[in-house]
Structures
1.
Amino acid sequence: MSKKNLDMLITEALDNIRSDRQLAREFLNDIANEIVRDSEKISRLSPVAAKHVEVLQRSNEQLVKLIGMKQKRREAPGLSEEDKNSIFDMLQEPSK
């Protein structure tokens, strides 16, 4: 894979991560507002909120991995097999 193609994939992945995080953040705000309006809903909405926090955490982990891979690439030319497999795995994960 060429450097240009890899850079495009990384850029796309970063854009997707940011978009997913924004959607999750907006949804969490909606859940919080709903709980404020009707505290009885907390038992039904708490698991949903927890899942979305998990999505945010996963996005953060993916972002850290991508930054680490970019840093490695600057330090040493080329990607290791582990880096390539990690990028492939991240791109194959379903978007939340």
Note: The first helix runs from residue 3 to 37.
2.
Amino acid sequence: QFAYDFFYQPVPEQGQGSGFIIDKQGHILTNNHVVEGAQSVEVTTADKKRYKATVLGTDKSHDIALLQITNAPDLQPATLADSTHLLVGQRVYAIGNPFGFQGTMTRGIISALRSVELPSGMKIDNAIQTDAAVNPGNSGGPLLNSRGEVIGITTMIAGNPNGGAEQSAGIGFAIPISTAKAVLDDFARYGRVRRPSMDVVTLEISPDLAQQIGLPADFGVLIERVLPGGAAERAGLRGGSQRAYLGFTPIILGGDFIVGIDGQTITNKQDLSNALNAHHAGDTVTVTVFRGQKQFNVKVTLSDATQQPTPGEET
């Protein structure tokens, strides 16, 4: 799923976005693309006061940035909800500064929960799709539930294929706040984001392909290659050795076939990504695999993908 990002339009001298305060110390969450490349950042609060802001950390892969303002009295932090159990049809509210109209609220519902791709090529897992009206200036603002709790960070909209680039199709996306919480935890503990990885290159398996190559389960993720010295290799997992073609695409067969992590069924790459993103680098997970027709569990200590080069699509 690819979404055209309305909020990434270049602004030569001055850009504008939204954000929200998360604690009394003046920490603010917004989008990375709101502050990326900025020489200075200024925050205007709801009472119209202006403060110079410091960018404490950014995570381009999740499009999240953490800012801080100081000497700001009587701050009212937003309440962060749990976004892991959202429901399609749930009512939501978006607050931001669309087209510079400060403090604008719009409402809608959760239309879907899906993986979407940023223009940078990065993916957001379990992005919240909504029909609440969002426009340039909403970027980085909060998406709220009916209790006024933050469930997501508004980040982009899908463009109308029959209209101009600046015409909304009524499809907006927000980063789940639970994803942001994990990023915040990494900022606090390490001063940067650590992305958990098994250090494997994988192939998603469908029932037809499973039958063709004789796999013992209809769905899962086949390990084509394990990275030398990586988490999977250290745990004893194996990549493939048999070269083949899927249409015109070269693939490697014969590797371990992942069907579960920590008791959770893994049917595709999205499931695998979700399972890993629920952990931190350094955590140990139990991976259920088939090697041939034999099923067994392997303990894998996840590595930090941000500390090594990424040769190809890796998880």
Note: The mean pLDDT is 86.
